[in-house]
Amino acid sequence: MAKQAKTAIQPTRSEDFPEWYQQVVKGADLAENSETRGCMVIKPWGYALWENIQQQLDKYFKQTGHQNAYFPLLIPLSYFEKEAECAEGFATECAVVTHHRLEATKQEDGSTKMEPAGELNEPYVIRPTSETIIGAAFSRWTESYRDLPLLINQWANVMRWEMRTRMFLRTAEFLWQEGHTAHETKEEAIEETRQMHSIYEKFLREHLAIPTIPGEKSEAERFPGADMTLTVEAMVQDKKAIQAGTSHFLGQNFSKAQDISFTARDGSTQHAWTTSWGVSTRLIGTLIMAHSDDDGLIMPPRVASQQIVIIPVTPKEDTRDAVIDACLALAQTLRSKDFHGEPIRAHVDKRDLRGGEKKWEWVKKGAPLRIEIGPRDLESRKVCLQRRDQAANEKTFLDKEEFLQNVENTLQEVQDALLERATNFRDANTHTCSDLAEFEKHWQSDQPGWLVTPWAGTTEEEETLSKKHKISIRCLPLDQQDGDEAPCILTGKTTKARAIWGRSY
Amino acid sequence: MAKQAKTAIQPTRSEDFPEWYQQVVKGADLAENSETRGCMVIKPWGYALWENIQQQLDKYFKQTGHQNAYFPLLIPLSYFEKEAECAEGFATECAVVTHHRLEATKQEDGSTKMEPAGELNEPYVIRPTSETIIGAAFSRWTESYRDLPLLINQWANVMRWEMRTRMFLRTAEFLWQEGHTAHETKEEAIEETRQMHSIYEKFLREHLAIPTIPGEKSEAERFPGADMTLTVEAMVQDKKAIQAGTSHFLGQNFSKAQDISFTARDGSTQHAWTTSWGVSTRLIGTLIMAHSDDDGLIMPPRVASQQIVIIPVTPKEDTRDAVIDACLALAQTLRSKDFHGEPIRAHVDKRDLRGGEKKWEWVKKGAPLRIEIGPRDLESRKVCLQRRDQAANEKTFLDKEEFLQNVENTLQEVQDALLERATNFRDANTHTCSDLAEFEKHWQSDQPGWLVTPWAGTTEEEETLSKKHKISIRCLPLDQQDGDEAPCILTGKTTKARAIWGRSY
């Protein structure tokens, strides 16, 4: 096709969204597949993003009184037998350790063959989540109401043997945080569940520039063993939903299975009320699908691996050193400034490559701001600024001092622009619907977006509808649970509740 | 014994050092054993220590150009077969994953039984270290000399199925960092090995207040597959050695096994020169054994979970609020101050417990400074300061302003005092020896400390001597490799080299 637009990523979003996603990940050098089935290598540019996410979330967790701790990777099989509902939810996708050594035998051709040896009496499961093993610790730690609340978070790797994997969005091993708390009263535990849910919503909106619908999962979509699951649902550019984070109120289900009991104020023995909540490296997949364009990754400034990349333009050898020195000095000045309480992350690309090559590399890597400085800019004290959220060839020439004075604002402008774009996209692709025929027709289109409907159906009715159209109730939005009364789209029963339906990852 | 000194930890160090250690860990609430064989739960007070260690080390790694990344937990068995020497070193202690799901069967009594199902074609090993899997990635990443050096670090959990475990010092699963680098030349790789070794020495000395002997491991004690292993060896209070960190020059051994090759400047194909280096949660065990006393843990201020604990003394209800408010205000002021570039970590213990109970809890937990404020101190604007490195009943009354003005110095004084004490102890228990009879007699005592001897023996001679006396060459100290010529203590051969011998963990 002679008239095809020149883009850095092939195919484009509209040509083939799933393949575009893989190419964005590759082009940005975020991660790659490994020879361990379904597991990826997170490369430095991707891991730096995770480190920023981790540090910023961790601050919110600590501000709300949570402490980090670390629990064993391997869970005794017997723990799974105790909490059958949760265990069955993960049983089909568990990595099981059955042996504790290898036996090496020399082959005839001189090579070494290794085989498992030392079979364990009781096998272990690599944690798919840690409710059971943390619950066992909580049981040891809880004697009196004075020991409560327990407010614990763990940053860890977990493993779920998924059949179909996709980098960041669904991998057999992934990195995450899992909060686990135990409380004296039901009200306190529900309040904790809601608090962490709000923190996720705020973090996604303010840090990742991703607007989400905070809501409750229907019974069919709840975490196995939970009484209530709250979720933040994001819409990405193929109009599908991604469950970006969940916060579960577990009632007394786990505390009864694991005997997390305590002597209450009245002297009686009670079971604690527990919660768990988590987000994972899936946030990175969500971020990529929400913001990136046909030129590659776009990172929101607050979590960007580098916020500003400075490219020295050095056409002549005799001015080369002076240009590079000016770039290094500018980076130093930028690093002494704060953006949201963190030193600005600035990088000078000194590599001996052509300017155009460098530029496109940083476009694909999604650096929010690019600065070019050439020999003539030294005299005029100017810089050339390019914003990743704007077209790749758009340039602004600024006095260096002016740029420095406004740089925090410029970063925030990029951040805000991304949020606004994502919010507009989400809103343009979410429609209310109260007519069943219209509802059924809607899902025949290619990228149908979301529908909001009055809903009072049963779990069975929900599952029938979901299966038929390959959709699910993403959530019952919290801010619409007290909507006007309207007839349920399926049953016609009068209801105040609304459900958001959509395809999902 | 009527006259026994009152100490918070029973038994004391001199009564039973190994049991004292367990009781210090327990009394400080750092960690506890779990039901997963050989694995511990790191509790919040212990994990905070690890977070500080991690953040401070990470800064040094990044300052020297390293980037963090993340590689799969599970290593295909075939990788172990490729690098046989290293694999055999870990083969006797590997957790092996052989199945990828569980099958639940309901028992007659209504309970659920879970059994491994879905056997894998190729089993996986939980990483005991990641040379092989990171090497496989390096092989993909290295085409030209322009791609070098690769300077990668990973913070991760690893697993070695140890038969005898001891919390922090040797556990089946532990947390660590592993640096892995690949270089164009041998010289560059050796320089990297030395650089990271120096960073470990400096970190232990300046941050953990632990003096170490930087040296080279003898061939017998080297990492399997390494051409040179550098180590930092610490002496703890039972005069044994702990290998606190190692940095390995791997030559081209791994790069040849894993084909980390590149097109060199002259167009030829070359194998890269690689290094690896690591420290682990073992540092916490070393810290405990190096500094703690019969009252419990002593944390060096730079890495302490909390640096200053403020205890409100509230004998009367009517002054209680005012005292607590004053304590909270003091903590706030302290947090606005910096100690080595980090906000001071201050905690107010508001719990409704008797003052004496609180005090002893913080003594056992090793907080470097304790501050008490009571109702009378409010009027006189005084604080009562207690230093953990001094006797538990020693108190200094200071004007609050004076305390605040000097607080960074006071913290540094505690830090320096711990380093000085540990250095004096180490020096007093390290002796030079050039006579074999004297050497052999030395190891008959209960806590023999270290001996430095001229050494030119073979690996076999070293192993014979080591076995006989249950000792090992801890290292060949770098600063004594050009010592005066002297006859080797065993063989009589003239040598400039010195070896440090000792018992070890």
From TrEMBL, chains A, B:
<dbReference type="InterPro" id="IPR017449">
    <property type="entry name" value="Pro-tRNA_synth_II"/>
</dbReference>
<dbReference type="Pfam" id="PF03129">
    <property type="entry name" value="HGTP_anticodon"/>
</dbReference>
<dbReference type="Pfam" id="PF00587">
    <property type="entry name" value="tRNA-synt_2b"/>
</dbReference>
<dbReference type="Pfam" id="PF09180">
    <property type="entry name" value="ProRS-C_1"/>
</dbReference>
<dbReference type="InterPro" id="IPR033721">
    <property type="entry name" value="ProRS_core_arch_euk"/>
</dbReference>
<keyword id="KW-0067">ATP-binding</keyword>
<dbReference type="InterPro" id="IPR036621">
    <property type="entry name" value="Anticodon-bd_dom_sf"/>
</dbReference>
<dbReference type="GO" id="GO:0004827">
    <property type="term" value="F:proline-tRNA ligase activity"/>
</dbReference>
<dbReference type="InterPro" id="IPR004499">
    <property type="entry name" value="Pro-tRNA-ligase_IIa_arc-type"/>
</dbReference>
<keyword id="KW-0436">Ligase</keyword>
<keyword id="KW-0547">Nucleotide-binding</keyword>
<dbReference type="InterPro" id="IPR004154">
    <property type="entry name" value="Anticodon-bd"/>
</dbReference>
<keyword id="KW-0030">Aminoacyl-tRNA synthetase</keyword>
<dbReference type="InterPro" id="IPR045864">
    <property type="entry name" value="aa-tRNA-synth_II/BPL/LPL"/>
</dbReference>
<dbReference type="InterPro" id="IPR016061">
    <property type="entry name" value="Pro-tRNA_ligase_II_C"/>
</dbReference>
<dbReference type="InterPro" id="IPR006195">
    <property type="entry name" value="aa-tRNA-synth_II"/>
</dbReference>
<comment type="function">
    <text>Catalyzes the attachment of proline to tRNA(Pro) in a two-step reaction: proline is first activated by ATP to form Pro-AMP and then transferred to the acceptor end of tRNA(Pro).</text>
</comment>
<keyword id="KW-0963">Cytoplasm</keyword>
<protein>
    <recommendedName>
        <fullName>Proline--tRNA ligase</fullName>
        <ecNumber>6.1.1.15</ecNumber>
    </recommendedName>
</protein>
<dbReference type="InterPro" id="IPR002314">
    <property type="entry name" value="aa-tRNA-synt_IIb"/>
</dbReference>
<comment type="similarity">
    <text>Belongs to the class-II aminoacyl-tRNA synthetase family. ProS type 3 subfamily.</text>
</comment>
<keyword id="KW-0648">Protein biosynthesis</keyword>
<comment type="subunit">
    <text>Homodimer.</text>
</comment>
<feature type="domain" description="Aminoacyl-transfer RNA synthetases class-II family profile">
    <location>
        <begin position="46"/>
        <end position="300"/>
    </location>
</feature>
